[in-house]
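User: Teach me something about this protein's shape.
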Amino acid sequence: MLLDLVLPVECGGCGAPGVRWCPACAAELRTKAADPRVVTPRLDPGVPVLSLGRYAAARRQAIVAVKEHGRADLVEPLAGAVRTGLTQLLTWGLLETPLIVVPAPTRWTAARRRGGDPVTRVAETAVAPLAGVTVTRALRLTGLARDSVGLSSADRQRNLAGRVRVRALPAAPVVLLDDVVTTGATACASVDALQTSGVSVHAVLAIANA
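Assistant: First, the predicted structure itself:
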């Protein structure tokens, strides 16, 4: 197509030309998502933290492409991985319906720059076909929270302390969805805010862990 000559299409995972998401990257994402693993971030949120795979290769490239390069076409592959992971956890009985997926909060300046919150878009797309699973944007960050890139574990924890606010109370048990769990600071602050408000948080689910 002429448009492809002007704006070449390439796989968001490996860069292969002529396709937006290649079969090899799709298989990598799907296989890992079907076997969610418990991970142990440096900061413990007090609930199980489950990851759909390492923050590397196709998974990392897709997350970065959605967040930083506007590749909205990659929301569906990431959402498919989340859907697979949730379905497996429900099948194993580790989660039960009714269940509410709460996206981890993001700074409003970052969301505005990205044209919306990518974690929320992934969550909403992921749960659409799942009976008894819904999404509630229950959390927000106050304007004083800084970008966490480059901060140590302790600095990330201080940066978020008291700055994650509950703006809507979910009406059922919750799983917190984050794109990448690194130190666990966001998970800790989010789980604490929800539990302090009386919300039952069953787990944290991350698309990737670093």
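Now, about its shape. The chain has one domain: 33-209. Residues 33-209 form a domain with the Rossmann fold fold (CATH 3.40.50). If you'd like, I can walk through any region in more detail.
User: That's plenty for now, thanks!
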